[in-house]
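input
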Amino acid sequence: MKKLPLLFSIYLFIVSCKHDVEWPEYLGGPDRNHYSPLDQINVKNVNQLEIAWQYHTNDTSAQNQCNPIVVDGRLYATTASVEVFALDAATGQEIWRYRSVRDTQWFSKSRGVVYWEDGNDKRILFSAGSNLYALDAEKGTLIKDFGDSGYVDLKKGLGELAQNKFVAAPTPGTVFKHFIIMPLHLSESAGAAPGFIQCFDIKTGKLQWIFKTIPGPGEFGYDTWEKDNYKNNQVGGANAWAGMSIDRDREIVYVPTGSAAFDFYGGNRKGNNLFANCLLALDANTGKRIWHYQFTHHDVWDRDLPAPPNLIKINRNGKIIDAVAQITKQGYVFVFDRETGEPIFPIDEVPVPTDGVQGEVLSPTQPIPRLPEPFARNTLSENDINPK
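output
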């Protein structure tokens, strides 16, 4: 299949939009709701849009998954090979482009960048390979006093055995004060690194805290694994590859985690395997667990959480509830009180089949919410298959 350079296209209506409305974070804001209050473009006039400008990245090395952000009239994004650039959002004119990571280390796909500022100190943070970089947002140059002359190694807090394993972070981190809380993308094999949640100081690159998604002895959840699983010799994963949302007023970060690895066999990790397949509510200052909920016990189906949770408000019986909603690969939506983790709607532990391959011990129940109704079909029978 022929590869084409990515085009960033902006349409004429956007140029004349309200000047005080931006897109400063991944998926639009800390609630990850993909929402903008702009209403000049609507169903009545969308067919009148015309291209205002295009930017050719001239990078055909891979697919581009970037979600650009717009701050102070500038658009920040990445190319397919994780070159970072800044454009004038009104004209598409390139302001700067940072290329130096391309030939110096392995890189992965990038879903976007992070913007942070403190007075005149304005920074763009992004990941390539296992490194987190900090650039001057005005100039596009490395900030040398961040970490090791401009970058930090995301393997730093994962333990000795993880140092030679695959670790990346294509999804942007989440900003809280002068910290950035990082998701990780890992292998899904038996040799995967552990998917610990790490928080770094944006000014210095110093590792601030770690939350272990595979607990060690004496830590909550340790008894949901086999004795030595925490050592990362055969078991890993439970990582937050999908990204996070954050309630900055409450100082809580909401972290959806993936499956333990190896994904499709758990005979060497018997138990429910906390904190794999969980929504974690963590104190953003310290990384301490406030509450959690596990959506799949002892996952052997790769049912990791596929998206960051949405922070929403619900009117229930005349009372406004600040809630967090998490979708799953099974087509369910689970909704919780943001502060307590109490389900807004009842959740049933439903008996499920437990026969599996030799050595496997499956959970006898799995959680299913009564409401909302599933947004996708989550069963398949022989009657659904076309014999032709």
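quick obs: The chain has one helix and 27 strands.
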